[in-house]
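RECORD TYPE: inverse folding
INPUT: structure tokens
STRUCTURE:
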């Protein structure tokens, strides 16, 4: 039953049409059953009508619906393993410490500058080239986390991953990152119009993740 809940909409429509046709045909022939035995009616009317449809629909369930559901669950598990890998854990912790924990202890102007500098790093090639190595590493780690969220968002949009499984491990973390990092970054003005050419793909996105992880 779990696999049937993840059936794509077009397949649901086809299944509904088939079931509706069965109901109509059975209802249409129902009057004839009044004068015939139940056995004869089932043998001569119901079985010939239903059997071809079952023969068509059963392979779809076995060879498309169930494998699709298993692939979605496998993809969700892979994303889970990536997100909780040691490399990603370090990237999350160090980037969070720099952009949230430490930044909150700074004066307001310094907090804004920390965001503006990262925004310049992302959108201005000249600023990107002169960043010190240690700071570049922090920026790379923050980008790694945000790029991961963008990849999960794309999987959700393409319906190629089990939504419930993704929500179970990412909702808590994503909401914190969205509120404390993504929104403050997106609220900063771009210094140069040409910077739009270099905005990362996750900028202004996460529509699917926001919908999946919203607080209810």
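DESIGNED SEQUENCE:
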């Amino acid at each position: 039953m779990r696999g049937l809940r993840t059936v794509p909409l077009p397949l649901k429509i086809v299944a509904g049409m088939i079931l509706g046709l069965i109901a109509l045909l059975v209802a249409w022939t129902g009057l004839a059953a009044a004068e015939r035995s139940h056995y004869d009616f089932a043998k001569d009317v119901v079985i010939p009508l239903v059997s071809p449809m079952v023969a068509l629909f059963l392979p779809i369930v076995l060879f498309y619906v169930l494998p699709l559901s298993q692939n979605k669950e496998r993809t969700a598990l892979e994303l889970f393993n990536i997100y909780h890998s040691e490399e990603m854990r370090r990237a999350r912790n160090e980037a969070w410490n720099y952009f949230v924990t430490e930044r909150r202890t700074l004066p307001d102007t310094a907090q804004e500058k920390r965001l503006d500098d990262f925004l310049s790093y992302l959108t201005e090639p000249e600023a990107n080239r002169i960043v010190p190595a240690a700071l570049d590493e922090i920026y790379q780690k923050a980008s790694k986390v945000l790029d991961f969220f963008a990849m999960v968002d794309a999987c959700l949009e393409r319906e190629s991953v089990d939504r419930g499984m993704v929500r179970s491990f990412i909702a808590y973390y994503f909401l914190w990152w969205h509120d404390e990092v993504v929104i403050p970054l997106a609220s900063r003005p771009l210094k140069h119009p040409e910077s739009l050419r270099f905005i990362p793909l996750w900028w202004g996105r996460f529509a699917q993740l926001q919908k999946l992880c919203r607080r209810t």
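NOTES: The chain is about 75% helix and 0% strand.
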